[in-house]
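Sample A.
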Amino acid sequence: LQGRRSPLRGLLTTGLMALASLQAMAASNPDASSFGRLVDDWAAPAAAASSTVNAAVDHHELALRQAVLQATWPADLVRLADEYLQHHAQRPWAADASRIRERAALTAKLLRREDVALFRSAFALPSERGLAAEDLRLAALGDAGAALRLAGQAQLADAAGSQTVGWLQFAAMLGSERAAYELALHFRRQAQPLMASHYEGRAAELGFVALPSLDHGRK
């Protein structure tokens, strides 16, 4: 060490001083049990500190897990799952967090599309809108059926219909043929034939078979 102060030199010095202190105290009392009690007393604070740290880690893990399970906005799910995996990758629930993150990342990507007019506010939970928390969470994780149900709920509360269309677009992107067909009907009523044709094609692609309409039968 050549006379310079260093962390290693300080650690060695501290260890030697502690060992010398223990040896001196043991020498003053030849009873071997005294030395054992001395070591126990020295180790007790360290054990208590370790227990406190473990409790804090457990609390952090549980709080993060609850946050992941309660979030409904896909981008939040990705962020929270990433945080969980960063700090608790060795915990048993890490596999669930990884699966949630993977599914939420896909839906977050869909929600960034220009042809899905659905925003963060749509995933909030105000009780007056009557949206089911479970359906919001399922939709955030890519459940097309849940997104279609949310479109129906939004239609009851959204006179302008903009959020209803957004949920239908989201459901159609997730694979709901019924949502795609509902969009085709919507854009047909709005006199937007190109959009109507696009969603009719999407519905057919997903396997939807429409019943013959009366209008078609009379022509």
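Sample B.
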Amino acid sequence: MRWAFSVIFVCAVASLFVPHAYAIIFLPAIVLIPIAKIVALIIFGFSFPALGIGVLWSKLFGKSLKKTLTIIIFLLLLLAAILVVVFKIYNPERPLF
């Protein structure tokens, strides 16, 4: 009974004393869903060739799964680094991170 009373009391206090929050930017789902789709497409566009090269590496050279995953991760990091350099050359005012 004491536990139920304390939970009800905390919920009542939390609902009565709500701090005011001001949103800087409000983006509805109509805007966010296409952005999420674009990001997913970019990630898939980089990971699919890396996975293909990793599978090819595994089949041609008979390497273990651990080495294949290492190659795939290395290729993804290499592609990301190349993109950072290309974007930095394209727009020098853009920060690296």
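B remarks: The CA atoms of residues 36 and 42 lie 10 Å apart. DSSP finds three helices and no strands in the chain.
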